[in-house]
Design brief:
The protein is α+β, with helices and mostly antiparallel strands. 50% of the residues lie in helices and 15% in strands. A hairpin with a 2-residue loop joins β9 (450-459) and β10. α9 (152-169) crosses α11 (218-249), α10 (197-214) packs antiparallel against α11 (218-249) and α10 (197-214) packs parallel to α12.
């Protein structure tokens, strides 16, 4: 006699397998459509991966995500794919965010929006139940976005603070100005490579993946991610201090040039390895893969082919709308002739001098037009720089991390401090950025030569010194069809003047802003 054994239906039974044979190609097609539409954003992201060592890990993120999803394939196959209409609301908001980001050429916004659209395509096509199962791989996909360099100024400041504090604690006398400091054995400065942002991003990416694979409780995962954030920051502080001490104790024969970088990565590698070794001691055994618990009634209620492809089509149309809006806005912005030249005189007898006599020029990249000259009146001399930007794009834009007063490698000037100052222009209160520059003695100037510099943005008549608010103004102006005409107004003068450099600059700006604004408006109107 043969015994009959009743077996439970296996994951991926016939009804579900049939549903997935429709849903999976639909999802792949939708993702391909999004990547095609936003190909310029995708290419920009890959370009950054290839040229920046900080974000090279981006090439590894998509394969890791696919592998993490593949690990859940059996559990996924046991769940019914069901389109989620709620995803369309979030997709509409993200698509609009992409449009705003593209209008003002902010890579971080457009690239985050692209990844968010790819992630939202999953619940839109296969539903929330499946999305919950692979929520970590979908979230991990955001690590491919090259973002984080906005932290660099703060990380550099912290590194300088700790290094100077540790040196003084070690008995080494230090004289500091901004990110520059001098010890008895030589001059040191904290530059971009010293910020530790590379270590931070690498540690966070790998640490997050390590926490997901080695821990099961949310508490342990969150704790390890926090550790992976703190450890590289502190390790970079120690690295900077040890490099300076190595140079100081060796008479600057060690920890210089290439040695500087080698010691840095070597130290970072050892610290991160120790972090993982210690973290592995609290690893939790991996749980059995979750099995889908969809009941037989839900499995048999297959989503109709028409509904599935209607969902894909509507989502595809939704993500195409920002491109249609951008096309309409671009057609409405006529490219008129750009006439931009410095007037021979401003108000109150401020007379223009020879442009080549200007002692300072900000490091602003690719302006549509620019003026760099100086004006004198009553023994006072003020440098005026106007960088005008029109029809901005990712290669030419007013607000950019590449647009600074001086770069860290500037051979003539070093920025030693920065602050802000309130002034009243045209009856309205405005805030300007204030910086102090020190001349490099190697350029034939005395080391005491210093400039006071003020900076403010002009966005179609609106004034701000805040980068983010400048982007908001630009986005609003473009959305309302008023173009993206913008300018940087930067004035400078010698710090050592009667009344001080700030008093001279304030007098100049209050007296001459009306003439400067008229020049910018005239340029905007193409006159």
């Amino acid at each position: 006699m043969n015994r009959v054994v009743n077996k439970a239906p296996e994951a991926g039974s016939a009804p579900l397998a049939g549903q997935w044979r429709q849903a999976f190609p639909a999802l792949v097609l939708l993702i391909a459509w999004i990547l095609f539409l936003y190909r310029e954003t995708s290419i920009a992201m890959v370009t950054i991966w290839s040229r920046s060592e900080t974000f090279t890990h981006g090439f590894l993120v998509p394969p890791i995500v696919l592998w993490l999803v593949w690990r859940q394939r059996r559990a996924i196959a046991a769940l019914p794919p069901r389109p989620m209409l709620g995803a369309f609301v979030f997709a509409a908001a993200v698509a609009f965010a992409w449009l705003l980001g593209d209008l003002v050429a902010v890579n971080a916004v457009t690239q985050l929006a692209l990844v968010a659209l790819l992630v939202l395509a999953v619940p839109a096509v296969v539903g929330l139940q499946v999305t919950r199962l692979i929520i970590f791989p979908l979230g991990f996909l955001f690590f491919c976005v090259p973002i984080g360099e906005f932290l660099m100024p703060q990380l550099m400041e912290w590194t300088a603070n700790f290094t100077v504090f540790a040196l003084r604690l070690s008995g080494v006398p230090v004289y500091r100005e901004g990110l520059q400091f001098v010890i008895p054995s030589g001059h040191w400065s904290v530059v971009e490579a010293c910020s530790g942002v590379r270590y931070l991003i690498a540690s966070l990416t790998v640490g997050t993946l390590f926490a997901y694979l080695n821990y099961q409780s949310t508490q342990r995962r969150v704790m390890f991610v926090i550790v992976s954030l703190l450890v590289p920051v502190v390790a970079n502080w120690l690295r900077a201090y040890m490099i300076v001490m190595l140079g100081h104790l060796s008479g600057n024969t060690l920890a210089a040039g290439v040695d500087h970088l080698i010691y840095g990565w070597l130290f970072f590698g050892v610290v991160i390895m120790l972090m993982f070794v210690i973290g592995a001691r609290w690893a939790e055994p991996e749980l059995a893969p979750p099995v889908g618990r969809a009941d037989s009634h839900a499995q048999l209620q297959a989503v109709s082919t028409a509904r599935l492809w209607l969902t894909v089509g509507f989502f595809g149309l939704l993500v195409a709308l920002p491109h249609a809006a951008l096309w309409v806005l671009d057609r409405g912005e006529a490219a008129g002739p750009l006439r931009f030249s410095a007037p021979m005189a401003l108000a109150a007898d401020w007379q223009a001098g020879a442009p080549e006599a200007s002692v300072f020029k900000p490091a602003f990249q690719n302006p549509s037009a620019e003026i760099n000259t100086h004006y004198a009146s009553g023994g006072r001399d003020v440098g005026l720089y106007l960088g005008y930007y029109q029809h901005q794009n990712y290669a030419r834009k007013l607000v950019s991390s590449d647009n600074v007063l001086v770069t860290s490698k500037d051979p003539r000037w070093v920025q030693v401090n920065s602050a802000s100052r309130n002034v009243s222009l045209n009856g309205k209160s405005a805030t300007v950025r204030r910086a102090e520059l020190r001349a490099a003695a190697s350029q034939g100037q005395t080391s005491e030569a210093r400039l006071t510099v003020w900076q403010i943005y002009w966005i179609n008549g609106n004034l701000t010194s805040n980068d983010y608010l400048a982007k908001v103004y630009s986005a609003v102006q473009r959305l309302t069809g008023r173009g993206d005409n913008s300018a940087a107004i930067i004035i400078s003068t010698s710090k050592d003047q009667p009344g001080g450099g700030d008093a001279v600059l304030e007098s100049f700006l209050l007296t001459n802003y009306e003439a400067i604004n008229a020049l910018l408006v005239k340029t905007q109107q193409g006159k």
